[in-house]
Structure formats: structure tokens, C-alpha cells
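no rush on this but wanted to send it before i forget. theres a chain ive been looking at and ive put its sequence and its fold in C-alpha cell form underneath. i want to understand how the C-alpha cells follow from the sequence so walk me through it. thanks a lot i owe you, the record is right below:
>
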Amino acid sequence: MSIPSTSTPTTSPVTTPATAPRRIGSLGPVGLVLAGGISVQFGGALAVTLMPQVGALGVVTLRLLVAAIVLLAVCRPSLRGHSRADWGTVVVFGITMAAMNGLFYQSLARIPLGPAVTLEVLGPLALSVLTSRRALNAVWAGFALAGVFLLGGGGFSSLDPIGVAFALGAGAMWATYIIFSARTGRRFPQADGLALAMVVAAVAFLPLGIVESGTKLLNPTTIALGSAVAILSSVLPYTLELLALRRLPASTFAILMSLEPAVAATAGFLILHQALSLPETLAIGLVIVASMGAVRTQVGRRKVNA
């Protein structure tokens, strides 16, 4: 798949019939976001099974370290030719990723996967309402928000309050991640900026993982499972999202993130054997409606501007 460079105009470089490129240009970023969401939630479910061995901070450390190594090997980013502002963006992006992962996995250690993601997605939803310039996007955000609360059973009073606080904090970092992922994608070619930011995140989080898990991080089985979590939860989704954000407005991207609770509930059912209730099923329907509305709004706007 060809992704246009952020330093060049976004007009199509080919002369094939107009409808096909426009259709690919409109739906391509959406497909990247959805694929990334599926990958990260199944990776999160796998991470829950690893926590009894190394703890939440240990899982995050393995995830970030392996992801940094893989991305450096694949991208081989250049360290030259970048401005101070470029490096500042990468550092903030990396610290944001470290905080987002650390807070989220701390919540997973205390509350189930579905409610944790449901609370976390409130951050991107708030971002979609605050940044969108179209009233219709607020309507889709309202549908998604209703689904989020329905998936949480209409309230979260029965959950560990510390776990809830960690999930909400992760949501705030997720909103910040969306902003700096887009900025990094515009400043660095391909996934180079992501690779550098992942190194920042891994280095920042490493002391916490060593303190909590110590030599447990060196267990071969733990390393293998941690590597799988890194690929599913970091390498694939972050790369796909960074590429998508080059061509998709942050507000639409944030509403698409409302699918995460539905995917998390499915992953929890398949891997962690957490059954879906009727309210959860209805919630999935609401967030799918919201996401489809966001896609249609985005496609319609591109057709008008074409």
C-alpha cells in the first residue's frame, strides 16, 4: 500500500480512473485503524495472561523493549537531518506512549479488559468532540459514548476505583498519543519517528520494569510471550495508526477508536472466556453505528472536496 509523503501534496500521482483512487484514499486509512484496533486488543488479552508471571510493569517493559528493537531493525531511522522541534516531538510522543501503556496495564491488573478499554476510550471520544469542526461528528461521538457506558453496565461503581483512575489516565494519554502520533507522522518519513519514539518509551520505562520484575524478565517463555504482546499491541497497531493519521483527521480517528471496547469484549470472550451479556451486545451495536457514521462523514467530505 502506498502512503503519500506528508511533505508533498496529497493529490493522486496516478492517472487511472478517478473513482478508484478516491475510494482507496477514503477507505484505506479507515482499514488501517480497524486492523490496528483488532491487533492491540487481542494483544492486550494475551498480556493479561502474562501478568501473573512478571506483573503489569514487567509486561509493559517487555512490550516496549521488543517493539523498539523490531522497529529499529525494520525502519533503520536516520539520526541526522532532524530539527530540534522534530526531536522534541519524538520525545514527547515516546513519553506519552510509555505513560499510556503503564497506566492501562495497571488498570488491567485491577479491572477486567472490557471495562478498562471502555473507560480508556473516553479520552479519544473527548478529543473528537473538542477538535471536530462538524456538528455531525458530535452526534456520532454521542452514539459511541452511549455505547461506552452501556458496555460498562451503566456505571462503574462495582469496579476497583484505583483501576478506574488508571484507565481514565490512560484515556487522557491516548488522546495525547493521537495528537503526537499525527505530528510525528508529518515530521518523519514512513515509521521512522515511531521507531525513535518507541526507543524513548522503552528507555523511560525500563527502570520500573526492573524494579518490579527483576530477573523474571529474562525467562525464555516470558520473553516469547512478551514479544508476541509487543508485536500485536505495539508494532502493528502503532505503525498502522501512524500511517492512517497522515490521511485521516484526528476527530474521525478518535471516533473510530470507539470500536475498541467492542473488540476488547470479543478478545476477552475468545481468550479470557469473558461472556458477552445483552447490554454489552447492544453497546457493540452502538459503537459500530458511531464508527460507520464517522466513516461515511469522512468519505462524504472527501468527495465534496475532490
Observations:
- Confidence is low (pLDDT under 50) at residues 1-27.
